[in-house]
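From the pipeline queue, job 12 of 40. The input is one protein chain; the requested action is below.

Action: predict structure.
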Amino acid sequence: MKPPKLHTYNNMPLPTTITPPSLCPAPIFPPNHPHFPPRNQFPPGPIFHRPRMATLSGFIAGSQLVGSSGSGGGGDNEARTLIEYVGGGGVDVGDDLVLLIHHLQYACKKIAALVASPFNSTLGKHTGFAAGAGGSAGGSGRDAPKPLDIVSNEIILSSLRSSGKVAVMASEEDDTPTWIRDDGPFVVVTDPLDGSRNIDASIPTGTIFGIYRRLEELDHLPTEEKALLNSLQTGTRLVASGYVLYSSATIFCASFGSGTHAFTLDHSTGDFILTHPSLKIPSRGQIYSVNDARYFDWPDGLRLYIDTVRQGKGRYPKKYSARYICSLVADFHRTLLYGGVTMNPRDHLRLVYEANPLSFLVEQAGGKGSDGKNRILSIQPVKLHQRLPLFLGSCEDMEELESYGNVQQKVNPGYEV
């Protein structure tokens, strides 16, 4: 008889009864758990001050990056979590906002798991939603929601309710704002799952959010009226904003009014770790991001700008390249890191849910957000689902773009809004 065949691991023989150790990190949630863990409230006493994690093997680069910036721990090579950072380790935003951020990051980890699930393509069949169903979006100016949009919206709303810190939530998925509680100090506006129409192709998606303080002077008004007016604050009143990118890494990028910082999800611990402190968008990039299949629908100014920079004849004597994912969070994230301009020249993106939060982030990183003529954060919203052109990017690129004058596309042939 032949001796039993042995498996090998790292060129070492192993008996058939022993399986090689897993090389994959532990999942965020236990695989044998049918549900996500319960929302536990924090223990009494000082919160968010657990001992810091020691430097992780294989995470040296991230830890050194945190220590080298001057805002990430004084070079102590310790990984700093999002909650440690907002709880006083980087900025001190107050316990109410820290608690809200804790619940918001928890919701986004659930959405990240949902987006990565092999079963999300059959979600509509199991929940009773059909793609594009969920109520008519025509009169409200909303896009028809997809099943994952609806579930993501419910995840965020549930987490905000549990936080006890939110008065009203306004979502791109809802016709009207949702009043949550009278004594909540904050207002949250959100696009729960940007880019979901491309999710079947595994294109990166994201969550966008903005946080305002509740306008106490409106407390005497009827609920529907005060919910709407609280949601229509200008971007200059934002307390915090951010996005979460669901891609090869899950990245929580946020600003609390003192710079823009990015945290990467560590799947071995479930923590968002500070990996990009004090992000600064380059003053000039070499990439433009736009759907230039619509080139012939554009106004003369925008066509001339694109023709000029891609030939290397603009103020920056290098030829620009086009990079377009058609996922706003993904295109903006790349622009934030590498510079250039992300744009949609037609009246398509929402002032409340997308333009204001992302403009706050890019300004805090040293860039600029504009509708082609005006600073986004200075525009007073008049409707909940108000749309406008959006241009985000490097300061010098944005100034050059705006100098061409006519860059807003007001004629939209072939589009359904």
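Job complete. Confidence is low (pLDDT under 50) at residues 6-10, 12-77, 125-139.
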